[in-house]
Write a structure and sequence with these properties.
With about 500 residues, the protein is mostly helical. Helices cover about 65% and strands about 5% of the residues. Mean pLDDT is about 80; it is low at about 205-215.
Length: about 500
């Protein structure tokens, strides 16, 4: 009996690798024999009993240190293995397995660990929804620290148990699956996973599936011109060149994350092609942004034109109903008080007139039903219509309110005298407290991203101010004792570079 324990950061593509292994012969884990617990239930029980930190909140490698479970907890694992005793090769994936690596390694010497990783910009991309309306720098730093800590702990275990582990780059897993399976086969005892020809052909044909779109958004895109729909779908549902370029630029301010990724690549079980962070040219990203804007404009115009057509049809139906209602009123009046000529008509002719009146009434009801249908469609279109946003200004003020700019301004204001230098630590502390108070007051506010402001270019200008650059340097080096030692030199270097740039 062989089992494969998969783990990886939440943004690593862990479950896609699990799906590849399941298509290659690995079987899903069955519930435990006595308590009917799945592997996820077992891990959840262990985490609760030992008060493990949330895998998405931990920020240091110590937070992910393997937990020492007492002998009392061995029964859970043994019961799970008994439930899968008849399966020659089985396994499961869980990000929380990072806490229980020593636990499984000691209980089963035949257990194999598949560790999945991906580029750090995938972590930012996966958590992009959490970055909206929050202090960007602080939230990005927290996400990357979580990614660094998780993968650092994974590397630490891998270095101690290389013979029992596979380190898998999720971005290359599909293309290099056969090589990974061969490596995996050397570490298993008994059944070796093997991808059959039909499954391999299906994987090559399918490729990576695009991210699913929301139903309303997919419906709106279906109304877009044929030339615009692919660009909009790619924008909302995939990994664009623009995303990669901007995130690679952001990661330049976080060299530790890039260093951890380089270590993962160097230790990877199957050698991967080198990752070139300059693959996406800025001009290509800019051109893609223009294409996406144009495609969005085409979509808005298409929806607007459809709405206008529906309104025109609705007005025509209303006119027809008014006309038929007038004719019906006249017919009712004639039937109630028929003129002398009508009264003189024979009974068959009167019956024919009554039938025509009934037919006219039936047609009126049909038109009314049609009008109601058009009205409901019109209401639905109005509800899904993309509303133009109001023009926003104040990007520069948003930058000035950021902690980076405020701390830099304090550094400049207190650097002009000896007394200012002595007061500087207290002034910086007061400013941080004031910033936190401001953030707590604005916690309920939902501000749009700065790039959506009409004067967003001013924000970039303010980021070139000495205040902003000094604040960046301060926040970068104030987190560790070694950083405090380097901080004065970093601030001086930043000021000198700023002066040289202005000459």
């Amino acid at each position: 009996m062989n089992k494969i324990i998969l783990l990886g950061h939440a943004s690593s593509g862990l479950h896609e690798v699990e799906a590849l292994l399941l298509s290659s012969g690995m079987q899903s884990a069955r519930p435990s024999k006595r308590d009917n617990l799945t592997p996820a239930d077992v891990v959840q029980t262990l985490c609760q009993a030992h008060q493990c930190a949330d895998v998405n909140e931990a920020t240091t490698e110590d937070d992910f240190a393997p937990v020492k479970a007492g002998a009392i907890w061995s029964g859970l694992a043994m019961d799970l293995m008994l439930g899968n005793l008849q399966q020659p090769l089985w396994g499961w994936a869980d990000t929380r397995n990072i806490y229980w690596l020593d636990y499984w390694a000691e209980l089963d010497p035949h257990a194999t660990f598949v560790m999945v990783y991906d580029h750090p910009y995938k972590a930012l991309q996966a958590m992009s929804a959490q970055l909206v309306d929050k202090p960007l720098e602080m939230e990005m730093a927290r996400l990357l620290e979580n990614w660094q800590a998780y993968n650092g702990a994974m590397l630490s275990f891998y270095s101690r148990h290389t013979s029992r582990c596979l380190l898998v780059n999720a971005g290359c897993a599909r293309e290099q699956l056969q090589l990974y399976l061969e490596q995996l086969g050397t570490q298993l005892h008994g059944k070796v996973p093997k991808l059959d020809g039909a499954a391999l052909a299906a994987l090559e044909t399918n490729g990576k599936a695009p991210l699913p779109l929301q139903a309303n958004l997919a419906l709106a895109i279906s109304e877009a011109p044929e030339i615009a729909a692919p660009s909009i779908t790619a924008w909302f549902g995939g990994d664009t060149d623009l995303d990669q370029h901007l995130l690679q630029q952001l990661l330049q301010d976080h060299p530790v994350a890039l260093q951890v990724f380089a270590e993962l690549e160097a230790a990877s079980t199957v050698s991967n092609p080198p990752v070139d962070s300059s693959d996406v040219h800025p001009g290509t990203a800019w051109l893609q942004l223009i294409q996406q804007r144009q495609a969005t404009a085409d979509l808005v115009m298409a929806l607007y034109e459809k709405l206008q057509t529906q309104l025109s049809q609705l007005q025509a139906q209303q006119s027809q109903i008014t006309k038929l209602a007038n004719e019906l009123d006249q017919s009712k009046k004639l039937l109630a008080n028929p003129p002398t000529q009508v009264q003189a008509l024979p009974a068959p002719k009167l019956k024919e007139l009554e039938e025509e009146s009934d037919l006219l009434l039936t047609q009126l009801h049909q038109v009314q039903e049609e009008l109601e249908r058009y009205y409901l469609e019109n209401q639905s279109l109005k509800k899904n219509q993309v509303k133009p946003k109001a023009t926003l200004y104040g990007a520069a003020d948003r930058i000035q309110q950021q902690l980076t700019y405020r701390l830099g301004a304090i550094l400049i204001a207190n650097s002009r005298s000896l007394g200012g230098w002595l007061r500087m630590p207290f002034a910086l502390r007061r400013e941080v407290r004031a910033y936190r108070v401001d953030m707590s007051k604005k916690a309920h506010q939902s501000l749009p991203p700065i790039h959506s402001y009409a004067d967003a270019y001013e924000a970039e200008c303010y980021k070139q101010h000495l205040s902003y650059k000094l604040g960046q340097a301060f926040l970068k080096y104030n987190k560790t004792p070694w950083g405090w030692f380097v901080l004065p030199f970093a601030l001086a270097s930043t000021a000198n570079n700023f002066k040289k740039a202005r000459l």
